[in-house]
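Meet the record:
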Amino acid sequence: MSQALHSEVQAVTARVAARSQRSRAAYLARCERAQRELGPLRGLSCANLAHGLAALPAHDKLKLRVEHAANLGIVTAYNDMLSAHQPYERYPGVIREAARAVGAVAQVAGGVPAMCDGITQGNPGMELSLFSRDAIAMATAVSLSHNTFDAAVMLGVCDKIVPGLLMGALQFGHLPVVFVPAGPMATGLSNKEKARVRQLYATGQVGREALLEAECEAYHGAGTCTFYGTANSNQFLMEIMGLHMPGAAFVHPDSGLRDALTAAAAQRALALSARGPDYLPLARIVDERAVINAIVGLLATGGSTNHTIHLVAMARAAGIVIDWDDFDRLSRITPLLARVYPNGSADVNHFHAAGGVAYVIGQLLEAGLLHEDVETVAGRGLARYTQEPVMTGGALRWRDGPAASGDAAVLASAAAPFSPEGGLRLLRGNLGRGMIKVSAVAPEHRVVEAPARVFDSQEGLQAAFEAGELTGDVVAVVRFQGPNANGMPELHRLTPVLGSLQDAGHKVALVTDGRMSGASGKVPAVIHVGPEALAGGPLARVRDGDRIRVDAVAGTLEWLGGADGADGASGLAARALAPSPDDDFARFSVGRGLFGLFRRHARTAEEGGSALDLSEADAPGAVQTAAAVAQ
């Protein structure tokens, strides 16, 4: 029996709704007008219609020309370089047949880029990663701009792809949209063993051949990586926001169940269209309650730190304004229910087998931590997502999900959680505001006070480590890594280096205006620190030897004084700003010059790090500041 909605969930939801009142109203008004005035153009222009029908098979042409059947648009992130997106090669065929079975037509509306942070990690291409999300949003909008579709399905899985697809789709919020996942690869080398080999390589104890062998054993087939990073956090969030078919997130790509769910998603999108029986546009699903549910789900599962940026941008695309105080407040009342790598040894296949999404949503509903009375693609009410799909006699059915955890080491109940608080924490202080993922950090490592070593790149830190310069307690400051500086690349390659120092018995922390991977691990890392150094943030005034305190318990990030005798806020402020790195090659090589406009116009990480005008929320003065809204 579900409890009444928790008072803090109610309060944060009300705070978000008040802050978003103007921008949300403007967004909904635009969507309502689009529904009235921008229906599919098939009946308005013969030339438009002829272009859209030209390549269709004869029977599909007939359906659209004479029968006025519904047309389903497919936006796909398919490429066969990325394991997570390779399965999508055959999905359009499955979707077309599913549409024909209900008298409709489906067409690939367009493709969006899909890059892999795991491939670009530590390489120049990583500086395109965050802004690829904006490019994906724009490509989604271009795909749907022909205005010939009654509904759409989105094929995408990984880090920036799902947020970008949703940001773009929300610009067509008058259309129904269903997200279609591809599922995780089969379990290979354990994530714990993979991390161990990486650390041995970083310290020179094994060679490159051993490292490559371990990596290939871990990443070995089609599907998402099996750790709970950004890609799999995406899938959990699409489910808890009601944008997947229930239970679709973590079904293996090659199973018959996966194909059945894909076909069901296509047919459900058509049923939700204005030509179907259950019209439900995307704008009505992604509301304040769905966004709050997403934050709670992220916190309860120890999900990716990247979503403290992505969820902000996705919400803004629907006219909803959230900030890191909302994450922090909800984290303090959300129990941690999952132990999945990097905050546990299990992978997402083990998580799924132990009860997975259905179990977690059921526990959170019972604890009164989720809005149940929401719209979803499966119908009204989030309780539908406490069910799981099965094949019975060759047909897709849903049954009640497990009432108890299948493995108490992987999934806990809300009554007896792994931790009474969620996985993320906001840190504030005279060095700015930043986020930290504490779910994977042991309690004894959550408070670090040590001298700073300051670097303007991750390569600088790696070089210092390899030269034997990092031999004691240290707070590594890596700056000029924010959205405006270089596109905010992930710095996940620093994890083995810092992890080896921590394992040697030193107090270690990372403080950066950049990002870490969704797999942020055992070393305390204060990330996304703002204002960023390039904008004159305090990190630009920090010097080697300064004393810094990272306190994830008290929620503080403090500069305590300098080796030069400077102390107090005035002492830090009196220092000159460090010059930003100026490297013409770094600005323009590997396509980085094409994203200069994004770097110059990107908002802060706390505002979503996007350079796009997503909604009325991005107009100057359009929304109240957090301080102006009653707590």
Remarks:
- The first helix runs from residue 7 to 19.
